[in-house]
Design brief:
The complex is a heterodimer of chains A (295) and B (261). Chain A has 295 residues and is mainly alpha-helical. Chain A has a domain of 177 residues: MetI-like (MetI-like fold, Orthogonal Bundle), CATH 1.10.3720. In chain A, helix 8 packs antiparallel against helix 10. Chain B is an alpha/beta fold and 261 residues long. The two termini of chain B are 37 Å apart. Chain B has eleven helices and ten strands. In chain B, the strands form two sheets. Chain B has a six-stranded mixed beta sheet, sandwiched between helices. A four-stranded antiparallel beta sheet of chain B has the order 2-1-4-5, covered by helices on one side. Classes of the chains: A mainly alpha (295), B alpha/beta (261). The interface between A and B is medium-sized, with 20 and 32 residues.
Amino acid sequence: MTLVEAGAADWFDVKGTTPKGKQARRLKDGTIGMIVGGAMLGILLLMGILVPLLSPYESDQSVDMPFMPPSSTFLFGSDGLGRDVFLRVFSSVYLDLGVAFLGVIIPFTLGTIIGIGLAMSRSKKLNAVVGSVIDGINAFPLLVLAIALIAILGPGLQSVVIALSLTNWARYARLSRTRAQVVKQQGYIEAAQTLGYSKPRILFKHLVPNVSSETTAYGLSDLILVILLIASLSFLGLGAQPPTPEWGAMISDGRPTLQMAWWPVVFPGLALCWAGVALSFIAEGVTRRERDVKS
Amino acid sequence: MSDALIEARQVCVTFGSGSRAVRAVRDVSLHINAGEAIGIVGESGSGKSTLARVLAGLQRPDQGEVLFGDESIYQRGRAYRGDKRRLVQMVFQDPYGSLNPRITALSTVAEAVKFHGEHSRSESHRLSLELLGQMGISERDAAKKPRQLSGGQRQRVSVARALSAHPEILIADEPTSAIDQSAQAQLLNLFQGLLGDGLSIALVSHDLGVIRYLTNRVYVMKDGAFVESGLTQEVFENPQHAYTKQLIASIPGRHLQGAGA
């Protein structure tokens, strides 16, 4: 309970209500969700460090007979090449989450800069041209565009990140342009102008934080989609290449023998779900918190 | 007018172009003398907010000029060059949008105090708390974010922020229209006090009661142009233009006052 209270005190000015009222409030404002999501993500990240570190084996090393079911020695069993599924699932954590993080942070940064730039620019031509590029990119499903780009760039995780950067920025640009257009007309921006603040001060202290807060909330839910997208691309053989441990690729490897052995497919799938649920709890909390700031 | 602090000459503002053009302000001239309070009244869409923004240096007029002292404020580049910028400050209509939602009332004011006074951090915090205190904002409330403050409190924080620049003119665009009655009275008393300290105020409002209470001269605006202007008392007692008569007749409860007099 102390963890709950310490967290909540930072985020909210919780009024002196009954303990039950407080609890309901925290459920509603997403605090509890953020703590649960944060804990789930923390466990995953911790296991991602500890399991490869403490395991006596390498992730691409044969340790047992192929297709051994889960046992007390090998908790998640072994795959078709006799590799430890438990070790491989947790060896993938930083690769999957790291690539997804890059696949979000690069488009996020690009898109925010472009979006705010467009909203600030007075050039109608620039807005029309870049605006239609944004709409054009957004008109395609992300997966289709990403596959097309990877076909040009060649398979591999590097191509996945480049493809994501080239396509996904448009969503952030559209979001931050719309938001910046609203924010720049707010009284506090005009007041900052009459106070004589410099343009960089107005931009970075007053405008950008109020624009990026919205895109951050979107970015967190986008992270979930990007994790799934990376797994999907690897499943299709376009992302991580064998023997690199990666959830999508592992599911792909185990798929032909699924009827014989379910564990090489199910455990990476569960890891994907776990990461997705954890992040969606956090994203939901951030979105609700953001809504509270604005109201 | 030689003693005019700020003067607008034949100001026109047009939004859009071609057949969709809206002439928000048409050929308007006004002046504000040092230490006086003027009112600009008119219904919604009459162009009074646009005119206020022109005076505050936020909306460049298409024609005409605005003089502060002897100098035109809309020269090339930004309006109000150098030290003049701080002398004209504005309080906005919407108390919900006029404060940055991410920073506390104290930080908002302290940023402005620090910017204009080159004080140390602790010094500007002390001065800000003092200023907020004068506006009736307690130290406790000063530490709150805008969403935790009432509409009236937010407006008073906005006034404190504007005053931290040591302005000579305060332009208030419908400062009372979005807040409740008691908060309105509090804000108007505050303005009255500021007038006593020598500040000039331009009050834009559709609330004739507020205008009558605070201002000594008034401009009546309709469809972007002034239809009548003069001393507030005279305009209220003896309106000349049909529109002004209509406006004054529509003050709620006025017939009761009239019956008593």
